[in-house]
Sequence to fold (483 residues):
Amino acid sequence: MNRRKSSAAAPKRYALILAAGKGKRMKSNLAKVLHPLCGRPLLLHVLNTLQAREFQKKFVVVGHQSARIRELISGDDIEFIEQNQQLGTGHAVRTASAQLKGLSGSLLLLYGDTPLIQSSTLERLMRARERNNAELALITASIENPSGYGRVIRTPEQAILRIVEEKDATPEERRIQEVNPGIYCFDLRSLLSGLSRLSSKNAAGEYYLTDLVEIFTRAGKKVITLPVETAREVMGINSRVELADAELFLRARINQKWMANGVTILDPATVLIDDTVEIKRDSVIYPGVLLEGATRIGSRCIIRSYCHIQDSILDSDVVVDHASVVRHSRVGKHSRIGPFAHLRQNSIIGEHARIGNFVETKAARVDTGSKASHLTYLGDAEVGKRVNIGAGTITCNYDGKRKNKTVIEDDVFIGSNTQLVAPVTIHKGSYVAAGSSVTEDVPPHSLAIARSRQVVKEGWVREKNKNANHKDQGATSERSSKK
Ligand code: UD1
Ligand code: CA
Fold:
C-alpha cells in the first residue's frame, strides 16, 4: 500500500458498506448484519477484511437497529450515515452522497451481508478499475443456483450491458448463471453524477444500485467485470440456511489456518473454532471441541473431546480432559483440568494445578501446585499453593442473601467430605479432618475436627439379635436345632 501511496498517480480510496436493511428473509428480530458467523457479527467480518487495506475514510450506512450497530463498531475510524427508510441499495448510496460529495478517487462499495470476501480480491478489483481507468469495476461469479441474485446481462461481444434483478428478470434471463455479488469499485465522481438518474419503477419499487451499470454503459462510460473463481467467497447471506452454509465454509477455512500454523486438529469436520480464537503451535484438538469468543490456547495444550472453552485463556502445556467446560477463566502452565470439570466466572487456576472430575469452580483462585481432584465445589474461594482438597469438599459460599468468601492458605490439607461454611479462613499449613463442617477460622499449623465424635457400642448387634430371639422362640429353636 505504501508503495502505491507514494506514486503520484495513485488515486485516493474510500470504502462504503451498506448495512441498513432488516434482512426480512432471516425471519429475525435481530438485524441481519448482527447475526454471528463463527462468533463474529456479519458486518465485522466485512470491516475486518477492510482493515488489511488503506482507505482515506470508511463509511457505513445504517438504519435498522442502527444504535446497536454503532455500538458494536464504535471506536473504529468509521463514519456512519443514517438511512431512515430503506428504499433500496441505490437509495442507501444516495443517502450517503452528502458525505461523499467533493471526494474523488475510488469508492469500494460492499454490502454488509457478504462476510467471506477476501481482501486480496478487493485489492484486485480496485486495481483493475484504477489501471483500466474504468468508471466502474465489479465482481461477477458463476453459480449453479443463481436464484436470489441479480443476473449479469452481456452483449453478444460479451461486454457487460446491465444487471437485472431476479424480480424483474424474464424466465430466459433467470437462466443466466453469471450473477452480481454486489462488490463494486466506482470512480467517485461518476457515481455521484449517476445517482440522480436512478428510479424506483421496477418490481420491488426500490431504487436499485445495480441500475447504474446500464446508466453507465448507455452513457459510454467504461464498466469492467472481474470474474471470481470461488463463488463461495462472494456469497451474500439472506437466510439462515445460507448462514449455516457460510458457517460450514468459514469453519473449514479457520481450521485450515490453524493447522497451517502448526496446530493438530484430529477431526476438523467436528471442531468449531470461532474466528476470534487464537491457538499456539503444537497444541492438539480432539474431535467435537468448541472454542469460542476471546479464547487463547497456549503451546502444546491438549484439548480432548467434547470440551467447550469460551472466553478463556490457557497457558502452555495445559491438558483439558474429556467433556470439560471452561468459561471466562484462566489456566496456568502444566495444569490438568477434567475430565468432566466446570470452570466458570473468572476462575483463575495457577500452574501445575489439578482440577479433576466433577469439580466446579466459580470465581475461584487456585494457586500453583494445588489439587482438587474429585467431586468438589469451590465458589468465591481463594486457594493458596500446594493445597490438597479432598473429594467431596464444598465451599458453602451462599447464606441465602450474600456470597461469602472462603480462604484456604498455602500447604493446607482439606480432608474428604468437608463443608467450609463461608466466610471462613483456613490458615497456613493446617489440616481439616475428613467429614468436617468448618464454621470457624482455623489457625496456622493446626488440626480442625468439626464433626461429632464417633460412638462405638460394642456387641450391640449381638444384643439386638438376642432380644429378637426371645420374642420369636419357635424360629430360633428350629434354627439352633439345625446347628
Ligand atoms: C443485492 C443486489 C443483487 C445482488 C445481491 C448480492 C441490488 C438492487 N441488488 O440484492 O443484484 O445479486 O445483492 O447479494 O442492489 N441495504 C441498505 N439499505 C436499503 C436496502 C439494502 O443499506 O435500503 C443493504 C442491506 O442491509 C444489505 C445490502 O444493502 O446489507 C444488500 O441488500 P439486500 O436486500 O440483501 O439485497 P439483495 O436483494 O440481496
Ligand atoms: Ca443480500
Observations:
- DSSP finds eleven helices and 40 strands in the chain.
- The chain has two domains: 13-234, 240-448.
- The pocket of uridine-diphosphate-N-acetylglucosamine (ligand 1) is lined by residues 18-21, 33, 61, 83, 86-89, 91-92, 111-113, 149-150, 163, 165, 179-182, 208-210, 236, 238 (CB under 6 Å).
- The CA atoms of residues 178 and 399 lie 67 Å apart.
